[in-house]
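Tokens in:
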């Protein structure tokens, strides 16, 4: 069975405990193993991890065959990074260093595509 974004969203909104793990190795093999291990989500950390855009696509591909959400922590609150990560197929984005209302609004705006 494949990941279902609608079900994941319902579980989050219901405040269900969802269990996951952080990966910062830049390894597609590790991402695939973690996604097949029963976690609800796997977060690929590109802020502190060794992975970059080139390795991220392979990590997301490794996760794609599972029921696990593939989330990505971007390095900075930047619209271009959001677009690239979402275009690669990430199910969600974690944004570091959001400290003001304006930064939060920028992050939300960057995560939404125009209709």
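Residues out:
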């Amino acid at each position: 069975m494949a990941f279902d974004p609608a079900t994941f969203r319902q579980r989050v909104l219901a405040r269900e405990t969802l269990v996951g793990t952080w990966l910062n190795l830049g390894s597609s093999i590790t991402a695939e193993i973690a996604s097949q291990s029963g976690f609800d989500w796997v977060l690929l950390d590109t802020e502190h991890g060794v992975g970059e855009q080139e390795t991220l696509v392979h990590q997301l591909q490794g996760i794609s065959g599972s029921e696990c959400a593939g989330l990505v922590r971007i390095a900075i609150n930047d619209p271009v990074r959001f677009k690239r990560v979402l275009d690669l197929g990430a199910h969600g984005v974690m944004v570091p260093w959001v400290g003001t209302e304006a930064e939060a609004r920028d992050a939300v705006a960057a995560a939404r595509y125009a209709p």
